[in-house]
Amino acid sequence: MSGRGLTHGRAVWLMVCVTLMWATAGVVTRHLEHARSFEVTFWRSFFTLVSLVVILPLWQGRAVFAKLRQGGRELWISGVCWSVMFTAFMVALTLTSVANVLVTMALGPLLTALGARIFIGHKLPARTWAAIVVAGLGIGWMYGTQLGEGQLLGTLVALCVPLAGACNWTVVQHAHAKGHDIDLVPAVLIGAAISTLVTLPLAWPFQANAHDLGLLAFLGLFQLAIPCVLSVLCARVLKAPEVALLALLEVIFGIALAWIGAGEEPEPSVLTGGALVIGALVFNELLGLRERRDASRQALTAAR
Q: Where exactly are the transmembrane stretches of this chain (predicted)?
């Protein structure tokens, strides 16, 4: 299974399917009967780990395990970042609404750009600075309205996801700049293993019944492990701005599924803040995509 033979159009539709699979986490979590907080995180990470241990050798061969030993410091830092994302995401879903979590996670691309500016020295265009300001206003509005509603803690926990993601991609970009590419798939495996080990003592004693375990196994395999592998394939065909734009569908799908499937209607403040965040991201990525296309055309014209 590789990205060869995957056309651009098929990659787009495959990425749409990936975002739909990612978006099932919120609605599935709302149908758990007994599992709570860290136990939810433990079981999802455990089933993700088991799934990847089976899937990755079939995909990349047994050499994938050798990469764990040869990946170096950056690979393990990336793995720790993935473990924070896995853990914080599921814990946040048990503390606040699906919409709050997903809108907060949508800050990832902008925080990544900011991290690259601070730690690597990447220059940010004016459009990205403007997007960061607008998205910050949207998140600030959303957070401010939650101060007296008891959901602020969950939203702050959710903020750990894009922060860890920004750290992860900054490490990957820094390693790439030094000529050391990181295979993100083994890093995801490391993240699942760390999350499983860290949350095990916090999840004890277990309360999940067979119904809960079935749902959490679904999350581990179909909501995380499989779409993780598919997204890597898509990223080999699609440009980064295209992936960033398509990934935003997770926010829309996730809120819609939680609303339809669990009756969780988003608050007006979340919709307002989310509109600002997503609008800023879409505007930034579309302009970036157009700039790259214009630059490519100019290069082709000059070459002629």
A: 12-29, 41-59, 75-95, 101-120, 127-144, 150-172, 184-204, 216-238, 243-262, 268-287
pTM of the predicted structure, to 2 decimals:
0.81
Provide the residue type at 175 as one letter.
A
> Which of 40, 63, 58 shows the shortest CA–CA distance to 200?
40
Q: What would the DSSP string read from start to end of the chain?
A: --STT--HHHHHHHHHHHHHHHTHHHHHHTT-SS--HHHHHHHHHHHHHHHHHHHHHHHH-THHHHHHHHSHHHHHHHHHHHHHHHHHHHHHHHHS-HHHHHHHHTTHHHHHHHHIIIII-PPPPHHHHHHHHHHHHHHHHHHHTTTTTT-HHHHHHHHHHHHHHHHHHHHHHHHHHTT----HHHHHHHHHHHHHHHHHHHHPSP---HHHHHHHHHIIIIIIIHHHHHHHHHHTTS-HHHHHHHHTHHHHHHHHHHHHHH--PPPHHHHHHHHHHHHHHHHHHHHHHHHHHHHHHHHHHHH-
Residue 149: predicted pLDDT: 56
Give the model confidence (pLDDT) of 147-173 as tens digits: 555 567 888 899 999 899 888 888 877
Q: What pLDDT digit, counting tens, does each position of 253-282 carry?
A: 888 899 999 898 888 877 888 788 788 878
- Kindly state the tokens that stand for 255: 């809120």
**% pLDDT > 70, the chain:** 91
Nearest to 97 by CA among 271, 238, 219: 271
Cα separation, 281 vs 128, whole angstroms: 9
Which has the minimum average pLDDT: 22-26, 177-181, 201-205? 177-181
Please state the domain extents for the chain. 8-303
Lookup: tokens for 50: 């088991």
